[in-house]
Amino acid sequence: MSASTDGMPPPEGFDGKAFVASLSNAPGVYRMLAADGAVLYVGKAASLRKRVANYFSASPKPTRIMAMLAQVAAMEVTVTRNEVEALLLENQLIKSLKPRYNVMLRDDKSYPYVLLTQEDWPRLAFHRGARGIPGRYFGPYPSASTVRETLNVMHKLFRLRSCEDSVFRNRSRPCLQYQIGRCSAPCVGLVSGPDYAASVHRVALFLDGRSDELTDELNAAMERASAGLEFEEAARLRDLVASIRGLQARQYVDGRVADLDVLACAMQGSSACVLLLAFRDGRNLGTRAFFPRTSGSEDPAEVLSAFVSQYYAEQPPPREIVLDRAIDDAALLEQALSQTAGRRVQVRASVRGERASYVDLARRNAAAALASRIDSQSAQAARLEALRALLELGEAPQRIECFDISHTMGEATVASCVVFGPEGPVRSQYRRYNIAGVAPGDDYAAMHQALTRRFRRAAEQGGVLPDLLLIDGGAGQVAQARAVLGELGIGGVTLVGVAKGEARRAGHEALLLPDGRELRPGPDAPGLQLVQQVRDEAHRFAITGHRGRRQKARTVSRLEDIAGIGPRRRGSLLRHFGGLGGLKAASAEQIAQVEGINAALAGRIYASLHGLDAAD
Predict the structure, then answer these.
(1) With helix as H, strand as E and coil as C, how does 451-515 read?
(2) What is the mean pLDDT of the segment spanning 483-494?
(3) What is the C-alpha to C-alpha distance for residues 504 and 52, in angstroms, rounded to an integer?
(4) pLDDT tens digit sequence for 273-303
(5) 3-state secondary structure labels for all residues of 371-395
């Protein structure tokens, strides 16, 4: 890429036509900036001069574009070598800058994968989250159920282990998975290393979508077994080939093994749903619905184009992408995706036969998913309005935060903060606070610390504040919240306590208002139902964090209490046995095999973990 060109507005405003005159016809990316420096829009262009000139011509434009242009105070451009580079840079900038007027893919859910670990005896398992475990990750899959279905098939066909390392290292006899024919029991040596490695290789071929190559290998192995008079092995391989062929036969598309995604976009006003129907190696992996932020756009082709560009910048594309409508950038996207994938990727909008039936299926599912979401949003809006009326607020709250405290007899205290907006939970803004330096069980001090940590930063740095702050607790907890807000000089936040009802019955909670009033709207009140949803989510988030912190603390403290166990030996033990559970399942002799642990120390560790005297 070459140099950047910045356009600064004259004192009376931004002169778009003068800026266009300074541009070349080279491909590149342009950025529109507001007066405060915020990025309004990022776009790509085959010719920067022609594309930017369109914005400042006299031709009529959509209301959304006119509203954006009215805010432009400056523009910046970056020249690229070709259109593909411009497309890739545009994706990077949209992801990092989150411009106000771009159509953006919003997807805060992590994708599920099939994980094949990199070990002497690899494990085949479900995985979601950061890919920090060494091994191969196959996917992503549209849904967790698809991953589990795939694993079910893989374990039946190839019999790789699924157990955690802590279990695998400490078994003395085969488990139930071996008994039902879903594992070859490498834990107790019932399968040889070469045979297990062959199964690992075959699993990788299958999950890579190379099942034709796999069946060729299996047929060759079957012939060798038959020639060597190993008829039982030959029969097993024959059945395995038949099973794989059977899986393929169920999911052929137009007579070919499918490796494609089908995408359809449904819109109602500026609300959009893009539905993904995925096939890999002939297997239907199911559907997943996405709801991009349209920023006021009502053009489904624009939304679909932005989705394809942004989604496949993060996920590996299949060999074929079938769309329910034509998009302007299809040829460019095809070129860019082929370049990044290292093989040809087709982007098609006009199809026949079975592919056309899948496009129709995707369209109908997209429309149904969008209608369901709009109904859900309408219900959420109605509950927000009911809550506004219940609390006698001037307008419905746009940001609700709720705090809760969780601990077990004062141990491992954790405070949670969950955030709800007009569309429901905003999980990316949830926060947990590990409470320290307060007396065990002092919930008032814990709440005071958590609220101080949350709102001090907002007070000092001008951060976002909630319209409604819910406190899970009675008058004492609410008093702590009122004190914190007063100490930090924060106003404009409506504070409400959520006290448990009689006999702790759901729906009978009391709402403690700032003026001292107490409301008991009853279980049928939509406003209280929304409060319950937010409070329950805060409780779930707090107790999950507390349990994790408590388990970690107990794991560390049990080992730290043993004389002779420092951080290095503790780490070696937990790594060797895969955690405290694996260590507890080990014998003293097995513990003594860990580097740095002698027999005497192993005996003390075993005794301590099992509540025995070291002399026993």
Answers:
(1) HHHHHHHHHHHCCCCCCEEEEECCHHHHHHHHHHHHHCCCCCCEEEEEECCHHHCCCCCEEECCC
(2) 91
(3) 62
(4) 999 998 876 677 778 899 998 888 889 999 9
(5) HHHHHHHHHHHHHHHHHHHHHCCCC
